[in-house]
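Query structure, 414 tokens:
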């Protein structure tokens, strides 16, 4: 993707986010550098008390309480972060029919279905009490559609279902649609409302992969010898993507340029990750970016805190980045838990400010590293200051064997 003309180079010009510890990117960065997790305990129907990441943001900033009630939690998150992304990009007037909305999801509809089944159980399963809003709430395009209705966008909208690689996959989709000339502006990212679903928690518990700890803020501990699973979080992050020529024409501040990306499949197992295919995915993204592993300054890991998942990714990273003494590695889930479909884009957003401040945010809750998770230049418990950060590689992998890698670089007007 090197040496492309300006109308084929894709840049990030705005970010809107809601994370368990922040409602905008500046606050998010501050919390990551300050090692402030804010994972807390929730009391979930049928499950009991579990650590989880819960977002706090002004839910009625961009639409009324009545609209939020009719819509979904995912839609509420999406409307907030999409509006914030446009504001961050300095975009107030744009061509609605030339704007695309692409949202990555791990799950959607389970929260609404579980709630409705519980509701009618209180009335002896009388389906007269089933809401007529159920169908539009549970169709897979719902969160993207709620964004278009709120913003009056008449261009294409749809969701990208790619398990926990979905945020990255939607970002890739937005870049591709811009390159094809299908749209002139793309709002893309990922959303997760998963903490509203007891089924997701119950399934991870049945797999022996649901995190627990006496201190909820310390429950998410990728790479640690005593890690015991995933902390499930909600969250959302949407980017504004533009072609470089259009961004320059309007004098936009460019946060980053999309340098390379890749998606591939393990074709091995429903749940268990496969390191060799992760190796191929990272190598393909690097090749497309025209970069060598040593060109990467920050590598943000996917690691979720599961036994095999962390080990497989570490094996893959060691293979690809062997001998790369200037690549620094971190993990964002240790701060915010696993935000499923929003994970990849939230974690990338947490690292983007490094282009300005040169800091690599730390991995926290790592007290005793698992020997199988040893990585060179793994940043632990305190930020590391670099002379300059020019490139970031972001890993994001998901169930049923899907892998995604995004590489972004600092925009330089040469």
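Result returned for the query:
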């Amino acid at each position: 993707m090197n040496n492309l003309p300006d109308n084929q180079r894709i840049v990030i010009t705005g970010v809107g986010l809601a994370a368990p510890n922040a409602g905008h990117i500046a606050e998010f960065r501050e919390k990551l550098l300050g090692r402030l997790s804010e994972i807390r305990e929730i009391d979930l129907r049928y499950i009991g008390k579990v650590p989880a990441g819960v977002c706090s943001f002004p839910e009625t900033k961009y639409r009324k309480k009545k609209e939020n009630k009719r819509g979904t939690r995912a839609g509420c998150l999406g409307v907030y972060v999409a509006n914030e992304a446009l504001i961050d990009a300095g975009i107030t007037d744009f061509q609605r029919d030339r704007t695309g909305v692409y949202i990555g999801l791990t799950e959607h509809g389970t929260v609404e279905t579980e709630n409705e089944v519980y509701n009618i159980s209180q009335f002896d399963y009388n389906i007269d009490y089933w809401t007529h809003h159920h169908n539009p709430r549970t169709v897979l395009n719902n969160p993207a559609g709620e964004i278009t209705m709120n913003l009056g966008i008449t261009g294409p909208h749809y969701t990208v279902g790619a398990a926990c690689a979905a945020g990255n996959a939607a970002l890739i989709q937005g870049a591709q649609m811009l390159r094809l000339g299908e749209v002139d502006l793309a709002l893309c990212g990922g959303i997760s409302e998963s903490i509203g679903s007891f089924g997701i928690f119950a399934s991870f518990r049945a797999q022996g992969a649901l995190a627990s700890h006496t201190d909820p803020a310390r429950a998410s501990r990728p790479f640690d010898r005593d890690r015991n699973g995933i902390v499930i979080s909600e969250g959302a992050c949407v980017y504004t993507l533009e072609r470089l020529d259009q961004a320059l024409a309007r004098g936009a501040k460019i946060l980053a340029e999309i340098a390379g990306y890749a998606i591939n499949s393990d074709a091995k197992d429903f749940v268990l990750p496969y390191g060799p295919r992760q190796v191929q995915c990272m190598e393909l993204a690097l090749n497309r970016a025209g970069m060598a592993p040593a060109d990467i300054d920050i590598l943000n890991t996917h690691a979720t805190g599961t036994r095999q998942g962390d080990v497989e990714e570490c094996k893959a990273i060691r293979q690809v980045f062997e001998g790369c003494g200037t690549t620094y590695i971190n993990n964002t889930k240790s701060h915010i838990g696993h935000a499923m479909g929003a994970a990849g884009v939230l974690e990338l957003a947490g690292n983007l400010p490094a282009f300005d401040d040169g800091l690599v945010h730390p991995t926290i809750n790592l007290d005793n590293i698992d020997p199988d998770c040893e990585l060179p230049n793994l940043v632990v418990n305190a930020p590391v200051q670099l002379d300059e950060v020019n490139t970031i590689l972001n890993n994001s992998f998901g169930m049923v064997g899907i892998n995604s890698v995004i590489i972004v670089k600092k925009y330089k007007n040469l």
